[in-house]
Predict the 3D structure of the following.
Amino acid sequence: MTTSLKIYNYKLRQGGVQPNAARDFILQTFGAERQRVDMYPSIFDLVTSKHMRGQGGQLEAASYNRTSYKDVDNPDKGTSYTGQEVWPADFIDENLVPGQESYLDYVPVFVP
């Protein structure tokens, strides 16, 4: 079984910096993007072009690096790779981005 780490990248979508009455500037935002990246410390089966967007699949990008690791339980498995697979971004409300001031209004927080 291949173990992966699921990581989410967030990016605010912005319209530009706008001056306000106090002679400060504010960043005018309109939503955000969340993109999932699956990171593999060790994987034996790589995706093919049919898994990529535009070729019938869903992946936006994938990259791998060969390692010298071999599976001791199954030596016929071949070479191991480390890598990552990038999925298309989802458009989300900017308040759902971690670190935003109102993020805690939407996400339940467990306090023991």
Notes: Helices lie at 103-106.
